[in-house]
Amino acid sequence: MSDIELDNDTILKFKYGDESAYTAIYNHFYNHIFAYCKYLLPAIEDARDMTAQLFILLWEKKDALDSYTNLRSFLFLNARNKCFNYLRDQKARSAIDKQISDFTSSEQTAILFAEIESELITRIREEVEKLPDYYRNILNLSYYQGYNNQEIADMLQISEKTVRNAKSIAIKSVRMIFLNRTTQMGFTLSLYYFF
């Protein structure tokens, strides 16, 4: 996943058709839109297909999207509407009406959790970026690129134990920063989930 922030410059480049900016936006929002579609739809494959359709639509409508708020609203509102339309097509109207009313009462909770997750990931990445290059590189290879300890050791020509030790030191550093910067226990505990 890209660590590029969704600043105004990135959003403006996307508006005018820059593919690297689109990739940054895709990477920033994909997991949250997929989680929301998965919450609304009965099958993971349906959620995956719906998410793909939404990002195709996002590209097609890029001319009208010029801010982070617009991007987020566009994706979540279209996810909601398209998922409900899909469910209507799959089931009889009488059965789906009750399901939609149930979703309406809890969908704000789903969006809230997606936003909290996004904020946590952003904050964690900000702190990882402040680490010395050596530790930051190992964390990026492990958690963002998916390499295991031995693969990282082979790439960096160091021992697997050295990789494990470096990851441990880096994670402790990030945890300490969170302990010092926030009184919200949720942020601190969340590191155990991500790492």
Automatic annotation (TrEMBL):
Keywords: Sigma factor, Transcription, Transcription regulation. The keyword Transcription regulation applies. It comes from the Bacteria. One of its GO terms (molecular function) is DNA binding. Residues 123-167 form the RNA polymerase sigma factor 70 region 4 type domain. One of its GO terms (biological process) is DNA-templated transcription initiation. The keyword Transcription applies. Residues 25-92 form the RNA polymerase sigma-70 region domain. Pfam families: Sigma70_r2 (PF04542), Sigma70_r4_2 (PF08281). Belongs to the sigma-70 factor family. ECF subfamily. This is RNA polymerase sigma-70 factor. It comes from Chitinophaga cymbidii.
